[in-house]
Amino acid sequence: MGAKVNSARGLFKKLTSFKKVDSSGQTPEQKLLDYCHRVLGSVERLHIDFKEKNNRSHASLEDTDRNNLAKAISGFTNSSGGVLVWGIQDKTLSPKPITDIQLFVSSLLELAPQVTDPVVEDIDGDWIQSDASAGKDGFGLILIPESSLPPHRVLLNVRDIKNHYYFRTGGAFVVASHTQLEDMFGRRPKPKLGLHTKVIQYGSRFGGMSNVYVVLGIENKGRGTAKAPFLSIKVHDPYGINNYGLDGNYNFGLDIVRSSIGSQETKYGASADVVVHPGVVHEVAMVDVKAADINKSGGEVQDLVVDYKIAAEGTGLIEGRKVVRKRKLLDIAEQ
């Protein structure tokens, strides 16, 4: 199962990977419980918390469930992020699967933006099926990332938690002290980076369709400035990076970083003299979606899939996948 994962996003990725069928011979539930017992049960739970549903015979949220979610969102995001696992008993780590787990997770994600001020962005969720069900019962996984806009207070008026600021410490959610609040309010603003895509139409027309390009850039949605930005992208077939750059004169938004022979990633970077300011998109490269390729085979177009890694000075490595749907490519090409 591998070693302990030390970040909230990495832990969420690890836990959701147990849904995949592999050669271990274990079911998804067995892999989840085994990892919880062997790896997570013996460590300080700074990035993980286990919750039971008050009444697990139905998916509707009750006050206890809302209370647990609100405290976890405030506590994890005011600290270093974490994963809330639903359907496992905290002390014994015994399974307590929840009925209609997909609906339950969806309800949690729908409520999540309403429980704190300011709103916590990029909360994600997934679920793992229970062995003793026909596909409806299971365990919920809620990713709560560290915030770039702390602190977050609880808005939910349930069980005397409203207006409290929570903090994760020693495996528990506690009301933040005056000193902790001073630290959070005075924390240096952080950049919040992601991959930005923009579909554009340019050039000659082919069969009534224009050439289409997808501009890739680093977007900063945070309050802090990102210095020395880095971007690594892998564009899946049948598409590829436009070798002529952003302007057709071999100019890219960042310097190309050399990669080893056989690498499928294209890397770009810059020194600390280059920054991405808050609210700015720094365009880096373009993907060439030729009109001829779009038009052939009866217009059978594939989604554009881009795997990316983004970093900057003082930030951790951000990994993700961006998909531009084929319908959007066709809509632009046909204009």
Could you walk me through the main structural features you see in this protein, from its secondary elements to its overall organization?
This protein has helices spanning 8-16, 28-40, 63-77, 101-111, 178-185, 291-299, 326-333; strands at residues 48-51, 82-86, 116-117, 124-129, 138-144, 153-154, 166-169, 172-175, 193-206, 209-220, 226-227, 230-235, 240-241, 255-257, 266-269, 275-276, 281-289, 304-311, 318-324. It has 335 residues and is α+β, with helices and mostly antiparallel strands. It is globular, with a radius of gyration of 23 Å. The mean pLDDT is 87.
Give the key terms:
four-stranded mixed beta sheet, 2 domains, single chain, Methyltransferase, Cobalt-precorrin-4 Transmethylase, Domain 2, alpha+beta, 335 residues
**What is the percentage of strand-forming residues?**
25-35%
- The residue ranges in which pLDDT falls below 50 over 5 or more consecutive positions are none
Which outline best applies? globular
Q: Kindly state the mean pLDDT as a whole number? A: 87
According to DSSP, the number of beta strands is 19
Instruction: Calculate the terminal CA-CA distance, rounded to whole Å.
Output: 50 Å
Give the CATH level 1 class of the largest domain: Alpha Beta
